[in-house]
Write a sequence for this structure.
């Protein structure tokens, strides 16, 4: 089993991490790929992976503790009191990271690593100076490896069109699970609970627009076409949510307008 050279060290609140990556986990024992995480952590000594066990009923927590035992300096494992859904699990992770650690940037990724840790880290380099927010975008091009199920792509484009109109912002993909923020911005926009468990990404855009104005969004945000994104076909979002999400979008628009 791979082990980090600094595996005996414990994370200290005085340490300054370059990047924290929050990964919400709900019944993920069959999707968590330890080797991919170990390979990444062997190379990146100044990154913290914060796993949020969201009330899992399988062996997710045991698997996460095993990962942490190998990399206690670079891994934190926390648990919500019960299953609260992705939005609140991510928010819980962000709030805990702000309380426990020092860092310059913070991100969240899906547990299946459809977006790789390596690419998330690469995109994080864009977040500096005036750029306070960067996010991945699943744009299929000749030089990218974007693997999505056909029906998910079509449904996603319909939803994305309505979201873009609601935001009044020319954004291609608000729902990609790779978003990176500077520490100051994240502390502000994750304070309040979200309306939707699955469309909280849209709320984040609304909150950033409120802070900076729609005119300044191109100055402070960057949408980055991903080099690779692979649909592992075990999404926690049921296809039937397509019929409920319109109510969520309506409630979001009502709340932020």
């Amino acid at each position: 089993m791979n082990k980090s050279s600094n595996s005996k060290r414990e994370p200290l609140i005085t340490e300054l991490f370059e990047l924290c990556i929050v990964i919400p986990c709900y019944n993920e024992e069959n999707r968590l790929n330890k080797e991919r995480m170990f390979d990444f952590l062997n190379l990146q000594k100044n990154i913290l992976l914060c796993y949020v066990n969201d009330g899992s009923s399988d062996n997710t927590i045991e698997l996460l503790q095993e990962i942490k035992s190998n990399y206690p300096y670079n891994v934190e494992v926390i648990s919500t009191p019960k299953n609260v859904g992705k939005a609140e699990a991510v928010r819980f992770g962000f709030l805990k990271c702000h309380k426990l650690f020092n860092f310059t940037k913070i991100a969240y990724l899906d547990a299946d690593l459809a977006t790789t840790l390596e690419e998330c880290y690469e995109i994080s380099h864009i977040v500096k100076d005036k750029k306070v927010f960067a996010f991945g975008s699943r744009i299929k091009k000749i030089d990218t490896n974007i693997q999505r199920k056909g029906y998910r792509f079509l449904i996603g484009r319909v939803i994305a069109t309505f979201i873009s109109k609601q935001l009044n912002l020319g954004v291609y993909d608000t729902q990609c699970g790779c978003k990176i923020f500077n520490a100051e911005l994240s502390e502000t926009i994750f304070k309040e609970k979200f309306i939707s468990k699955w469309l909280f990404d849209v709320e984040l855009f609304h909150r950033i627009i409120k802070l900076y104005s729609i005119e300044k969004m191109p100055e402070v945000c960057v949408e980055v076409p991903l080099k690779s994104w692979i649909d592992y076909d075990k999404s926690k979002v049921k296809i039937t949510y397509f019929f409920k999400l319109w109510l969520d979008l309506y409630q979001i628009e009502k709340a932020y307008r």
The first strand starts at residue 16 and ends at 25. The chain has a mean pLDDT of 91. DSSP finds nine helices and nine strands in the chain. The radius of gyration is 18 Å.
